[in-house]
Design a protein that fits this description.
By secondary structure, this protein is mainly alpha-helical. It has ten helices and no strands. The longest helix is centred in the last third of the chain and has 19 residues. It is elongated, with a radius of gyration of 33 Å. It starts with a helix and ends in a 5-residue tail after the last helix.
């Protein structure tokens, strides 16, 4: 449907719908025509672009929603029509899937290549799934953890244990107890 066809169909349906309400007091005939035209234009602009039957169904859904929620006997205002309009449309084509990386495999490749890896994957909950899933060996993970201990000790000295322990829990204890050689 073209825009003008949508507007014309909406205008006819809006006029029929508004017959069940009292016109607002104080509006001249020209002002009422202008209000109907503005509401029709909103339907043409805001409803999802569809075929004639679906457009008519969307108009009726809007009118039903207004009947269910409108308080009063006077015409609903334009914003009530806009708020009641169906927002989306049913896609006829299949949804396009966005590319997603498998972070676990990416981190495992980095670790197996001795490349830098985020500390959260060395000590955090994901570290166990890397080892238990066979993505990295226990030796590789232990190497990253020993390196983390050495780096923290070099930078934070006596505070290093407290910092790592507060972030990751007691898992860091054995690595500190063995001087970073666990």
């Amino acid at each position: 449907m073209k825009f003008e066809e949508r507007k014309s169909k909406a205008r006819a349906e809006v006029v029929l719908f508004l017959d069940s309400f009292a016109p607002p007091r104080g509006l001249s005939d020209d002002a009422m025509k202008s209000q109907v035209s503005n509401i029709s234009d909103a339907f043409a602009r805001r409803l999802p672009v569809t075929d004639v039957e679906q457009f008519g169904a969307n108009l009726q859904k809007t009118f039903t929603a207004i009947r269910d929620h409108h308080k009063g006997y006077a015409w609903p205002v334009q914003s009530e029509f806009v708020d009641a309009m169906p927002k989306g449309h049913v896609a006829s084509a299949s949804k396009v899937e966005a590319y997603q990386t498998d972070e676990k495999q990416m981190i495992a490749r980095r670790m197996n290549a001795s490349a830098p890896a985020p500390e959260s994957w060395v000590w955090g909950p994901g570290s166990w799934s890397l080892v238990s899933g066979g993505f990295v060996s226990r030796e590789v993970m232990d190497g990253y953890r020993r390196s983390s201990i050495r780096t923290h000790r070099a930078i934070f000295s006596d505070d290093s244990y407290g910092m790592l322990q507060s972030r990751y829990g007691d898992i860091v204890g054995p690595y500190f107890a063995s001087g970073g050689a666990a």
